[in-house]
Design a protein that fits this description.
Blueprint (H helix, E strand, L loop, with lengths): L1 E4 L2 E5 L6 H4 L7 E4 L9 H10 L4 E4 L1 H9 L5 E2 L5 E4 L2 E6 L17 E4 L3 E3 L13 E5 L7 H11 L3 E5 L11 H9 L4 E3 L10
Parallel strand pairs: 2-3, 3-4, 4-5, 9-10, 10-11, 11-12
Antiparallel strand pairs: 1-2, 6-7, 7-8, 8-9
Helix pairs in contact: 4-5
Length: about 200
């Protein structure tokens, strides 16, 4: 997912499901990585993006930071309660843990990021930032979650707009299902279904 706000262009979680598209992204100011699972962190793509985008900042947590340090890739660590700025655009970190899958399986550091004080990208967890959210990237599918958790998270966030992410594993025709529920229980949040490759201005 590529975000453009206040003249800053950010790529989020370049993983192994979107290699071809993400390796073509240019004019990046930052790459933001929530955690180290392969569908969010694809090392070869990161290396290529850093080479293609001179001066790009890589922002992530300490867990991913260790992996990047081993590859001599410069980065800025932003964990829970920490922040940085890219061209005066704030990036704030929230939360520490990936949502449970089963026992210790897949248990890694996961940091959600609030970008520009408006856009919230949680990675693989439902940790709320404790402050207003205008636009929410809402996880709607995955081995670590169920639909009721997504709905409850959206209710807590209270965003003006929400759109589904982490939905590549489900049928496109099913992507609007969460929106049907939210329309009934959270009418103040507009839920948007984004098709693969679509661009939307909020």
């Amino acid at each position: 997912m590529v975000i453009e706000h206040e003249g800053v262009k950010i790529l989020t979680d370049p993983g192994n499901y979107t290699v071809e598209a993400q390796q073509k992204v240019t004019d990046l100011d930052a790459i933001v990585i929530t955690h180290e699972h392969q569908d969010h962190y694809h090392l070869e793509s990161i290396k290529k993006l850093v080479a293609m985008n001179p001066g790009v900042a890589v922002v992530t947590n300490s867990g991913v930071g260790k992996l990047l340090s081993a590859e001599n890739i410069a980065h800025t660590v932003v964990g829970d309660g920490q922040s940085t700025a890219i061209k005066n655009l704030s990036i704030e970190g929230f939360g520490r843990d990936h949502a449970p899958i089963y026992g210790e399986f897949g248990r890694v550091e996961n940091t959600a990021f609030l970008i520009g004080g408006k856009f919230y990208f949680p990675g693989d967890n439902f940790h709320t930032p404790g402050k207003p959210v205008e636009v929410l990237a809402l996880p709607v599918a995955g081995p670590w979650m169920k639909i009721s958790e997504a709905v409850d998270f959206a209710k807590l966030a209270g965003a003006r707009i929400a759109f589904g992410v982490h939905d590549g594993m489900i049928m496109p025709s099913f992507r609007a299902f969460v929106g049907v529920i939210l329309k009934n229980v959270l009418p103040e949040t507009e839920y948007i279904v984004l098709e693969d490759g679509a661009t939307r201005e909020f």
